[in-house]
Amino acid sequence: MIRVKLTAQLKDWTNGVSSLEMDTVPDLQSMVRKLDARFPGIGQRIVDDQEKIRTHVNIFVNSENSKDLQREMTKLRDGDTVHILPSVAGG
User: What domains sit in the chain, N to C, each tagged with a CATH number?
Assistant: First the structure.
Protein backbone atom coordinates (compact mmCIF):
# COMPACT_ATOMS: atom_id res chain seq x y z
CA MET A 1 0.00 0.00 0.00
CA ILE A 2 1.00 3.61 -0.57
CA ARG A 3 -0.46 6.66 1.13
CA VAL A 4 -1.50 9.66 -0.97
CA LYS A 5 -1.99 13.07 0.65
CA LEU A 6 -3.80 15.85 -1.19
CA THR A 7 -3.89 19.55 -0.44
CA ALA A 8 -7.06 21.59 -0.02
CA GLN A 9 -6.96 22.72 -3.68
CA LEU A 10 -7.58 19.13 -4.79
CA LYS A 11 -10.17 18.15 -2.19
CA ASP A 12 -12.92 19.64 -4.37
CA TRP A 13 -12.22 16.79 -6.79
CA THR A 14 -12.21 14.10 -4.10
CA ASN A 15 -15.40 14.91 -2.17
CA GLY A 16 -13.27 16.22 0.69
CA VAL A 17 -10.87 13.29 0.93
CA SER A 18 -7.42 14.59 1.84
CA SER A 19 -5.60 11.33 2.51
CA LEU A 20 -6.09 7.84 1.16
CA GLU A 21 -4.34 4.53 0.80
CA MET A 22 -4.15 2.58 -2.42
CA ASP A 23 -2.50 -0.56 -3.66
CA THR A 24 1.11 0.00 -4.66
CA VAL A 25 1.49 0.93 -8.33
CA PRO A 26 4.75 0.99 -10.32
CA ASP A 27 5.14 4.77 -10.70
CA LEU A 28 3.57 8.21 -10.28
CA GLN A 29 1.99 8.11 -13.73
CA SER A 30 0.11 4.93 -12.80
CA MET A 31 -0.88 6.45 -9.47
CA VAL A 32 -2.43 9.50 -11.18
CA ARG A 33 -4.36 7.23 -13.55
CA LYS A 34 -5.69 5.26 -10.59
CA LEU A 35 -6.62 8.46 -8.73
CA ASP A 36 -8.44 9.74 -11.82
CA ALA A 37 -10.37 6.47 -12.13
CA ARG A 38 -11.56 6.91 -8.55
CA PHE A 39 -12.05 10.68 -8.71
CA PRO A 40 -12.80 11.62 -12.35
CA GLY A 41 -11.25 14.93 -13.36
CA ILE A 42 -8.50 15.07 -10.75
CA GLY A 43 -5.93 13.75 -13.22
CA GLN A 44 -6.20 16.80 -15.47
CA ARG A 45 -5.36 18.98 -12.45
CA ILE A 46 -2.12 17.04 -11.90
CA VAL A 47 -0.88 16.08 -15.38
CA ASP A 48 -1.19 17.47 -18.91
CA ASP A 49 -2.44 15.73 -22.08
CA GLN A 50 0.84 13.80 -22.41
CA GLU A 51 0.56 12.62 -18.78
CA LYS A 52 3.49 14.83 -17.74
CA ILE A 53 3.32 16.48 -14.32
CA ARG A 54 2.12 20.05 -14.75
CA THR A 55 4.76 22.69 -14.09
CA HIS A 56 2.78 24.21 -11.22
CA VAL A 57 2.36 20.86 -9.42
CA ASN A 58 4.95 19.41 -7.06
CA ILE A 59 4.73 15.76 -6.15
CA PHE A 60 6.86 14.50 -3.30
CA VAL A 61 7.60 10.83 -2.75
CA ASN A 62 8.42 10.61 0.92
CA SER A 63 10.54 13.77 1.21
CA GLU A 64 11.94 13.94 -2.34
CA ASN A 65 10.49 16.11 -5.09
CA SER A 66 9.67 14.04 -8.16
CA LYS A 67 11.22 16.83 -10.28
CA ASP A 68 14.56 15.84 -8.75
CA LEU A 69 13.87 12.16 -9.46
CA GLN A 70 12.22 10.75 -12.58
CA ARG A 71 9.16 13.02 -12.63
CA GLU A 72 6.01 11.06 -13.54
CA MET A 73 8.08 7.90 -14.01
CA THR A 74 9.35 8.03 -10.41
CA LYS A 75 9.08 4.51 -9.02
CA LEU A 76 6.87 3.80 -6.03
CA ARG A 77 7.36 1.14 -3.39
CA ASP A 78 5.15 -0.34 -0.75
CA GLY A 79 5.01 2.02 2.24
CA ASP A 80 5.75 5.23 0.29
CA THR A 81 3.91 8.44 1.08
CA VAL A 82 3.07 10.70 -1.86
CA HIS A 83 2.18 14.38 -1.35
CA ILE A 84 0.55 16.21 -4.26
CA LEU A 85 0.98 19.99 -3.94
CA PRO A 86 -0.31 22.35 -6.62
CA SER A 87 1.28 25.79 -6.37
CA VAL A 88 -0.86 28.52 -4.89
CA ALA A 89 -0.75 31.97 -6.46
CA GLY A 90 -2.14 35.06 -4.92
CA GLY A 91 -1.97 38.74 -5.08
Answer: 2-86 (3.10.20.30)
Put the strands of the sheet holding 2-6 in their side by side order: 19-22, 2-6, 81-86, 57-61, 64-65
CB 73 within 8 A of CB 29: yes
Is the whole model's pTM more than 0.70, yes or no? yes
Q: How far apart are CA 91 and CA 38, in angstroms?
A: 33
**Positive or negative torsion for Cα 68, 70, 73, 78:** negative
* pLDDT confidence tier of residue 90, bands split at 50, 70 and 90: low
For the stretch 61-67, contacts whose Cβ atoms lie closer than 8 Å and that sit 24 or more positions apart, written own/partner, are 61/28, 66/28
Q: Is 79 exposed, middle or buried (0-12, 13-18, 19+ CB in 10 A)?
A: exposed
